[in-house]
Design goal:
Blueprint lengths: L5 H10 L6 E3 L2 E3 L6 E5 L6 E6 L3 H17 L7 H17 L1 H12 L3 H23 L5 E2 L6 E9 L2 E5 L5 H14 L3 E5 L6 H13 L6 E3 L4 H9 L6 E5 L2 H13 L4 E5 L5 E4 L6 H13 L11 E5 H16 L19 H17 L2 E4 L3 E2 L7 E2 L2 E4 L6 H4 L6 E7 L2 H9 L3 E2 L1 E5 L3 H10 L4 E4 L14 E2 L2 E2 L7 H4 L1 E9 L3
Parallel strand pairs: 7-8, 7-10, 8-9, 10-11, 12-13, 12-20, 13-18, 17-18, 20-21
Antiparallel strand pairs: 1-2, 3-4, 5-6, 6-24, 11-23, 14-17, 15-16, 19-22
Helix pairs in contact: 2-8, 3-5, 3-7, 4-5, 4-7, 5-6, 10-11
Bound molecules: NADPH dihydro-nicotinamide-adenine-dinucleotide phosphate.
Length: about 500
């Protein structure tokens, strides 16, 4: 939790100097296109700065710098223990710049400052610490072959890795990719989302200060269809790791197929089912935890439990608790440390989210809380926490990812129907079931087709566990030691020892 007051944060905001050029080969540089785009704060609609809009030539320069750094071994050739020390120093430097980084994040994408400080920046530093700590403890293998040979199975870095990330947790989504990629010796080119480029640009400079050599971590800012596409189609990028919408994830598969079949990791959308059954001992607790999980981060979460599937016998009680929790999430000034619901990332997204209120109304759901824009006088992009009740799973609000503070309540008869509804989606990221019946807990969690199932909790989190989805929620896993598999290739070396 931050000790600064709202006034302190506003004063600090007035003194911030943003980095706004691309970061290539250890230097801030203008885009060769000469173009820029505006970073507008969703807090008040004011211009923060103009950011370099990189084109294909800039991407080529960044990839060239990353390739040279990889080939000459300035990072890839360091012993893992040395990379560990540098990554851990980077984590310390991030912690030392906690307020500055948190403020950049909040101003750029609108989340509450207390979340930026206590969740985002802390988690980013922990992520670099964790992968740094791990990298000199991971061993390769010797296969159990016949006596006349030694077969080594070793992990080698991919080479040049690109990361394309979204705006909901800008630094953290980047860190989940950067930390294991750098730990394993790769060089990286990062493209942040156009709505949230500023923290990535500052991180790159701090990485250099920590001792990550020039050329190893580059940042190209710009538009997805131009800058992101150029990375996706680049013939000298060995792996591309993306978090964002399922639609753009599909584009990256096309880009890979159209270019060099680069390895892909895709962490995509979700429409996570959260099943509350009457067999759970404390309906009120389940409903409170669930509602907080929906409204956290303005609902701009790929794991947002946006489909609340609830047994009819407790439906009314659960909805009452949700309404009560929603009252605690009145959108406020994101720089006020007491605010828990900040601004939506931009007006385009806020309009898209508000479109779901119209569709819910048209398709016959009951809007029992929210459904309006808020804080119009601020000039920013705010939306009230919203509850759609008596939703049928075929409705748009139950099928499409809203990515806003909105939940669709779907009443069901029993656990069997709940599972059917839960799986009736193209997504398979997170899910939950609340029950005290042991066999129901096991049966439901086995039956749900999702990468993550929470039983009697939601959004439990730790670096030690993999994160990712089934179905159209993606391919591969972030976090945990499993992430090392993404950023390495297995090599088999047969050595004939005769005899
Ligand atoms: P996108 O998937 O469009 O953006 C994510 C990243 O991909 C950004 O860096 C973006 O760049 C880039 N990108 C966009 N289009 C292309 C393209 N054609 N080729 C290459 N890269 C591209 O998410 P949006 O920001 O548009 O959000 C839309 C919806 O996606 C949300 O409402 C939500 O439903 C979902 N989403 C899911 C996330 C998740 O964590 N699963 C995260 C963010 C969004 P740029 O922004 O600069 O155009």
């Amino acid at each position: 939790m931050t000790t600064l007051t709202t006034d302190d944060w506003h004063t600090l905001a007035g003194t911030l100097q943003f980095k706004s050029q691309a970061f290539i080969n250890g230097k801030y540089v203008d885009s060769t296109t000469g173009r820029t785009f505006s970073a507008i704060s969703p807090i008040d609609g004011k211009l923060l700065t103009e950011v370099a809009c990189c084109g294909e030539e800039d991407v080529n320069l960044a990839v060239k710098a990353a390739r040279e750094a990889f080939e000459d071994g300035r990072w890839s050739g360091k012993p893992p223990a040395e990379r560990k020390n540098i990554l851990q120093k980077f984590a310390e430097i991030i912690r030392a710049h906690r307020n500055e980084l948190a403020l950049i994040e909040t101003l750029d994408m609108g989340k509450p400052i207390s979340d930026s400080t206590s969740i985002d920046v802390r988690a980013v530093a922990n992520c670099f610490d964790w992968y740094g700590e791990a990298i000199d403890k991971v061993y390769d293998e010797i296969a159990p072959t016949a006596q006349n040979a030694v077969a080594l199975v070793t992990k080698q870095p991919l080479g040049v890795v690109a990361a394309v990330v979204p705006w909901n947790f800008p630094m953290l989504m980047a860190a989940w990719k950067l930390a294991p990629a750098l730990a394993t010796g790769n060089s990286v080119v990062l493209k942040p989302a156009e709505q949230s480029s500023l923290s990535a640009l500052r991180l790159a400079e701090l990485a250099l200060e920590a001792g990550i050599p020039a050329g190893v971590f580059n940042v190209v800012t710009g538009m997805g269809p131009e800058t992101g596409r150029a990375l996706g189609r680049h013939m000298d990028v060995d792996g591309l790791f993306f978090t964002g919408s399922t639609q753009v994830g599909k584009y990256f598969m096309e880009y890979s197929a159209q270019s060099n079949l680069k390895k892909l990791g895709l962490e995509l959308g979700g429409k996570s089912p959260n099943i509350i059954l009457a067999s759970y001992r404390d309906t009120e607790h389940a409903a409170r935890v669930s509602a907080n999980a929906v409204f956290f981060n303005q609902g701009e979460m790929c794991t947002c439990p946006s489909r609340l599937i609830v047994e009819k016998s407790i439906h009314e009680q659960v909805v009452e608790v949700f309404k009560d929790v929603a009252k605690n999430y009145a959108p406020g000034d994101p720089l006020d440390p007491d605010t828990n619901m900040g601004a939506m990332v931009d007006n385009r997204h806020a309009d898209r989210v508000m479109g779901f209120v119209d569709s819910a109304r048209e398709e016959g759901a009951d809007i029992v809380a929210g459904g309006q824009r808020a804080r119009a006088e601020s000039g920013g992009c705010y939306i009230e926490p919203t509850i759609f009740d008596n939703v049928d799973n075929s409705m748009t609000v139950a099928q499409q990812e809203i990515f806003g503070p909105m939940v669709s309540v779907i009443p069901v008869e029993n656990a069997e129907e709940a599972v059917k509804v839960a799986n009736d989606t193209c997504y398979g990221l997170a899910s939950a079931v609340w029950t005290d019946d042991l066999s129901t807990a096991h049966k439901v969690s086995r039956a749900i087709r999702a990468g993550m199932v929470y039983v009697n909790c939601y959004d439990s989190d730790d670096m030690t566990v993999p994160f990712g989805g089934f179905k159209e929620s993606g391919i591969g896993r972030d976090k945990s030691l499993h992430a090392f598999d993404k950023y390495t290739e297995l090599k088999t070396t047969w050595i004939n020892i005769g005899g």
